[in-house]
Amino acid sequence: MNRIKTVMLLAALTALFLFIGQALGGRTGLIIAIVFTGLMNFASYWWSDKIVLRMYGAQEISESDAPDLFRIVRELALRGSMPMPKVYIIPEETPNAFATGRNPQHAAVAVTQGLLQLLSREELSGVIAHELGHVRNRDTLIMTVAATIAGALSHLATMAMWGAFLGGRSDDDDDGGSPLGGLLSIILAPIAAALIQMAISRSREFMADEEGARLSGNPLALASALRKIESWSQRLPIHSGSPATAHLFIINPFSGGGMMSLFSTHPSTEARIERLEEMARQGIAMTAR
């Protein structure tokens, strides 16, 4: 269901993009927005792993540095028929983890020092399996596509706003859209795009939880790890990084409540735990696909 939901949300984001382009008219501005945002996200797709690892001061380790962690990553990668990713430790007391890299051949898994101190071996295996699930599902690629479309929408709305301030529309724009449609598009397009982009991110988290439970063979251990990380993250906030990277982490270290949950990159931890516990109750075969 989450795979179908992702496809539907991407289709909705694309349809919104085409609709806004029609409402605003400006074909030239549409092309500029696509090219500009596409170039930005192309660079992000190829080099974001290095940028984010440096942002959090992550240090690559070898097996001699952290043999237990390294062994867990290697065992799970072998079980999932995946290449061995690079392993990093982040010098943060906040328990958390993320995976990055443009494909399984160029992947990295990073965990904080606080995570290693907090979790049992079974819980740590569940977290690592979740992150490898992101790698296996190529979530970096999917989120880059979503970010490209959403970013182009935002740029298009911004250009339309400045165009309206500086003298209205060009002759090329006469064939498409009404002034009211253009105004609504300028106001609502970035909000709608952000909501859909965040919904895609939340659906990928559910998929990674399921993948991690199957890969580790222990959904309850992953559920226990999520519960601990959520609790400690609220008491011990992360000190480095940026909210722009929140979608990478297993638990959002920059989360907010209330209406902000609509823009959250993660589903609620309670909902994730419930799904994992349901997997355990149903006795779903925990084997890597």
Could you characterize the architecture of this molecule?
With 289 residues, this protein is mainly alpha-helical. The chain has one domain (2-282). Helix content is 63%, strand content 6%. The protein has helices at residues 2-24, 27-55, 67-79, 113-118, 121-136, 139-165, 179-216, 219-235, 269-282; strands at 59-60, 86-90, 97-100, 108-112. A four-stranded mixed sheet has the order 1-2-4-3, sandwiched between helices. A hairpin with a 7-residue loop joins strand 3 and strand 4 (108-112). The longest helix has 38 residues, at 179-216. It is globular and about 60 Å long. The two termini are 17 Å apart. The model is unreliable at 170-177 and 285-289 (pLDDT under 50).
**Mean of residue pLDDT values:** 80
Structure annotation, total helices: 9
The largest sheet is: 4 strands, mixed
Low-confidence stretches: 170-177, 285-289
User: How many domain regions?
Assistant: 1
N-to-C span: 17 Å
State the shape: globular
Give the helix proportion (percent range): 55-70%
Question: What is the percentage of strand-forming residues?
Answer: 5-15%
Let me know the number of strands.
Answer: 4
Strand order of the largest sheet: 1-2-4-3
Q: What is the H/E order?
A: HHEHEEEHHHHHH
* Class by SSE composition: mainly alpha
Roughly how many Å is the radius of gyration?
21 Å
Secondary structure layout:
Elements: H1 2-24, H2 27-55, E1 59-60, H3 67-79, E2 86-90, E3 97-100, E4 108-112, H4 113-118, H5 121-136, H6 139-165, H7 179-216, H8 219-235, H9 269-282
Parallel strand pairs: 2-4
Antiparallel strand pairs: 1-2, 3-4
Helix pairs in contact: 1-6, 1-7, 2-6, 3-5, 5-7, 5-8, 6-7, 7-8, 7-9, 8-9
